[in-house]
Amino acid sequence: MVLGSWLGASSQVVESARSASAAEPARASESVPRVPGLSDLFSGFNAGVSYFGVHNSAIGWYSVATPAVSYAFSPHYSADASASIYFHRLVENLNPGAPPNDRLVLDAVDASDTFLSFHATYLPGSLQDTITASLTLPTGNASEGLGTGRVTFDFANHVERDFKRVGFLLDLGAGDSSALSNNIVSKDYNSLGALAHFQAGSTFWWRDNYLQMLAYEQLPIGSQKVYVSYSPGDTNPHPVVVGSASSEDNGLTTIAGIPITSRLTALSYYNRSLRHHSDTVSFGLTWVLRGTQKGKWLSMIDRALREAERDQQ
After folding, report:
1. Domains of the chain
2. For residue range 265-294, what is the model confidence (pLDDT) as tens digits?
3. Where residue 30 falls among pLDDT bands split at 50, 70, 90?
4. What is the distance between the terminal CA atoms of the chain, rounded to a whole angstrom?
């Protein structure tokens, strides 16, 4: 995440950083949401991993590890790949003869679908605009809500505008899977079918820390197949729900990040699904192979350069 306080950097700092960072792009707020901080200002290869403890109001606690790799082809274009591994997660017992008090069984370890994304970032004036095309490969277990058994896609546009310590963002997208919408949040379902998604919010920075608050809407278009890990209150367990509005979701997400070192960041989020009446909270760490020095984010210098260039025009 960038820090808006660098927009007011002195001309001496701007001049000393010009040769090192003039060609670098600004950091996108959520370039790779599944491993925040992975997509950075460095050219070439980068890699990272996140590990989170997650609590869902329906199935309780479990752990998620997400390794990822990225490659920046130029200051404007980059690509990344990631996949999550779930540990000690409760899923629905599909045995129809199971007693009512034995509806959940422990799944020791399982994998999600693999995510592939291509990003194009532009800086039209004072805005930062990132266009993302994404695919999922069917490596996840559909019967446990971790996949759909199909290749899915999504196209999204992320627009951000910063005002010193406050930033505003808007995401618009469409695709055929809920897995690619608001994917920093660990979900216990996956959908197959056309849908549109929208997200708007604000980011607040203090020192190297940030707090982001988002409101989101996931709107299905036509018939949907939803692959669930658990359906509370369902007396006939099954992993697939079919319906025209079965994948609709909306709610609020709050994300907090605290950089510990240049490569290690503590991250937490709380998600309230208003549609599903469920809560998800998570605490974890992300580690990246190539990180920015704490307190000296290159992206902040880059934004200071842009601000200075506009002042001179």
Report:
1. 4-312 (2.40.160.40)
2. 999 999 999 988 889 999 999 999 887 655
3. very low
4. 28
